[in-house]
Amino acid sequence: MAYFQCNFFSPTLCFNTDINVIIPTPNSDEILNHKKSDYLSDGAKFQVLYLLHGAYGDYSDWMRLTSIEKYAQEHKLAVVMPSASNSFYQNMYRGSDYMTYILDELPAFVNSLFPISRKRENTFVAGLSMGGYGALKMAFEKPEQYAACASLSGAVDFTGIVKAIENGEISGPFRWNHIFEHPEAVEGSDADLFALARKRITEGRTLPRIFQTCGTEDFIYPQNVHAHQVFEEIGLDLTYEEHPGIHDWDYWDTHIRRVIEWLPLANDSVRE
Q: Hey, what CATH topology would domain 2-262 get?
């Protein structure tokens, strides 16, 4: 893989921000073992996974704490990893427009620099915890932009998470009055994934395929079980898995590999 760390000014955020990007390139293992290594040819493009961090994290987490580079190389998948602070991937009431940045500005930026496909069938988004919510939020906001999305231990039952934090059942770094003008009115709004999914279906728009996984000992497991039930009731194209595990990088390292295997991948470069 080719590994890029980019620092650039974002007009949407109004400050410099960082991303990690990995692009499949022929490596020594492929050469020495006579594997296919001609995929980086003139005009080649790669399928891309936008991979989101969780609360307390940043763009570097996935590279430092998992083997995402190895897994992506196996499937010839480009991966883009941005930062979004503790914004819950929202356009914040008192803060920056993180959803607009990641949904609109970031794809335009990386597509201008890297050999990444622009087609819906080649574009995916996934994340862990807060990023699991962010991945589904992005996919539901612009379903025509993503073929598939995945949540690992995600805060996908958003109103349930907000209530659990407010009740002291779980902890979180979020200042809801900075993220939302009216935190008490989140349920039923576009920040509520259940409401947003129903809204898109009413509009006649096709939502991407969804992968949802959570550890059975995870503190966020009850909310994931509830979200699974609601997504099934809504009629979404959902693959749901639960396995022994807690809210940690051992679980996410194991299951991001499973997500990549689940994605509709070409396992080679593609053509526009």
A: Rossmann fold (3.40.50)
